[in-house]
Write a structure and sequence with these properties.
The chain has about 425 residues and is α+β, with helices and mostly antiparallel strands. The chain is built from six helices and 21 strands.
């Protein structure tokens, strides 16, 4: 669906024209109890190397570089939202978004919830909800709303959950000149993680999610700390045969700890922990953003890693130049399994595959980004951006060629709008 650039461009153009008409007539006839809005991005990105595919996040199986040196699908998307108010204390929203996931553009229900607001300080939602474990995480597809063409890949790219089905409660309380907010959420995830291998995904359907955050806002500052736990419900299909071999008596003759290793590799019922801290200073025309995260699990498949980014921007009339430094690093790199001289070739080959394709899935990448945003109107902007990427571990890239030197430079442009 929408598998060619021409179809995508036509879809974007028609959507803008159609919703200008339908939004007006809908509001006129429904007394604003219901409203239709939306957003979209039409982007183009070029990679200076054909030796690797750079991806936006782990939901994409192909990126820009090896598959297509110039691509319009990496950042482009289209979203539609319907908001409804049923009473003074009850409202709701439905949001559908179409973006590349994993290889083609397919509509996806990202929000569908009812919200209860008993007073000005408390809100309770139930349904399909955005996962805002990081600042900006639940709006990372709305290109108009943030400064970059895409949120820093090193930081946001490894976030495997964007929505969940469940409930959240948000409580805000003024304190002196500021405001403190507490939020708790729980639910079940439904998404799939792409691995870069054909027809090989990790299905998160049925995985349990639990977490919360605390945020403090005062004057020009906002600080948020959050913590979440994801319990993975399913095994990674590609591991099934490997785990069976490690647990078999024939292999344990040469790998005595095979059963222990199998348990460490397994993903089913394992926990992934997300912790983050975000600090934003917004004193127009200056904006500064600093965010840090820590991801760890009790499975070798998801190694311990940390990431951070710093963005500085300064608005000059309609122009906003910006610069970002971001990085991700593995923590306590996993020890490789040893191959001994007396091992049969089939056993040695198994251990080599585990070391290379499983334990070796770490994330080490640094990016320096600079660009400029120009506000066309109050509802649209244009951005141009250059990314210098240096990669040594290959979690956030695809189709790595043997002679790639770890360097990639992207130049991107995007038109973003809301309606």
């Amino acid at each position: 669906m929408f598998d060619s650039p021409i179809r995508l461009i036509l879809l974007q153009t028609l959507s803008i024209l159609a919703f200008f008409c339908t939004s007006y007539s809908f509001a006129e006839t429904n007394n604003n109890d219901f409203s239709i809005s939306g957003f979209g991005t039409l982007g183009i990105v070029h990679n200076d190397t054909r030796q690797v595919d750079v991806i936006r996040d782990l939901s994409q199986n192909n990126g820009v570089g090896y598959t297509r040196q110039t691509d319009v699908g990496m950042d482009s998307n289209l979203g539609l939202q319907i908001d409804g108010r049923f009473s003074d204390t009850l409202d709701g929203a439905i949001q559908v978004i179409s973006r590349r996931n994993p290889d083609q553009f397919h509509p996806q229900l990202s929000w569908a919830y009812l919200r209860y607001l008993p007073n000005d300080n408390l809100s309770i939602r139930t349904g399909r909800l955005g996962f805002d474990v990081y600042m900006l995480a639940d709006s990372k597809n709305v290109g108009y709303s943030y400064i970059w063409i895409r949120p820093p890949i090193d930081f946001f790219g490894s976030l495997v959950v964007s929505y969940f089905d469940g409930i959240d409660a948000r409580l805000s309380q003024p304190i002196d000149d500021g405001k403190i907010t507490l939020k708790f959420f729980a639910g079940i995830t439904r998404e799939k993680i792409e691995t870069g291998n054909f027809n090989q995904t990790l299905d998160l359907a049925g995985s349990k999610l639990l977490g919360g955050l605390i945020e403090y806002e005062r004057n020009h500052w906002a600080v948020r700390a959050s913590y979440s736990v994801l319990q993975i419900a399913n095994e990674y299909p590609r591991l099934t045969s490997t785990l069976a071999r490690l647990q078999s008596p024939d292999y344990q003759v040469f790998i005595p700890s095979g059963a222990v290793i199998a348990n460490q590799l397994s993903l089913k019922e394992k926990f992934v922990h997300y912790a983050s801290l975000g600090i934003v200073y917004d004193n127009s025309p200056f904006l500064g953003q600093l965010m840090l995260n820590d991801i760890h699990s009790n499975s070798l498949i998801i190694p311990h890693s940390r990431a951070a980014f710093l963005t500085l921007s300064y608005r000059i009339n309609k122009w906003t130049p910006y610069a970002t430094l971001s990085a991700s690093r593995p923590i306590d790199s996993n020890t490789q399994l040893a191959i001994t001289p007396n091992m049969p070739q089939v056993v040695a080959a198994l251990i080599t595959r585990i070391n290379r394709r499983v334990i070796g899935q770490e994330n080490s990448q640094t990016s320096f980004t600079y660009g400029i945003r120009y506000d066309l109107t109050n509802s649209s902007n244009i951005k141009i951006q250059i990314d210098h990427i240096r990669n040594t571990d290959h979690l956030l890239v695809r189709k790595v060629q043997p002679d790639w030197n770890g360097h990639a430079n992207l130049i991107s442009a995007a038109y973003n709008y809301i309606f």
